[in-house]
Specification:
Layout (H helix, E strand, L loop, with lengths): L8 E5 L2 E7 L10 E7 L8 E2 L5 E7 L1 E6 L2 E6 L3 E4 L5 E5 L5 E7 L7 E2 L1
Antiparallel strand pairs: 1-2, 2-3, 3-10, 4-11, 5-8, 5-10, 6-7, 6-9
């Protein structure tokens, strides 16, 4: 199944945007969730965790500081991080331009809980 660029589920936030391209809710996968995230320059998404799935984040452009539990990691375009189930995390853009990344979850019904 192909999801065209303009067919994703778009969620806008004050810190940026998520476009869900593949998920159980969309009927496009029974095993995974996949999307594209933009975090505006100087902004961060809230710290959160996923109690039911692992996450892989791949940074396409920009630079972020990614928190993973108590650790902070600077990531540049081309870097990838694997986030285990239940670990609190978030990303903050530290480049002058927006950060754009793709994210993938090991569940078709990704759950999110705030810190």
């Amino acid at each position: 199944m192909v999801t065209k660029n303009n067919q994703g589920e778009v969620l806008d936030f004050d810190w940026g945007r998520i476009v869900w391209l593949v998920s159980g809710a969309q009927g496009t996968s029974n095993t995974m969730t996949f999307g594209r995230v933009t975090i505006k320059a100087g902004h961060a998404n809230p710290r959160h965790r996923h109690p039911n799935c692992d996450e892989i984040l791949h940074l396409l452009s920009g630079q972020i500081e990614h928190s993973l539990g108590d650790e902070k990691i600077v990531m540049n375009a081309g870097d990838t991080i694997s986030i285990p189930t239940g670990i609190v995390h978030n990303a903050r853009t530290i480049s002058p331009e927006d950060a754009i990344m793709v994210i993938c979850f090991s569940s078709p019904d990704r759950q999110t809980e705030g810190e």
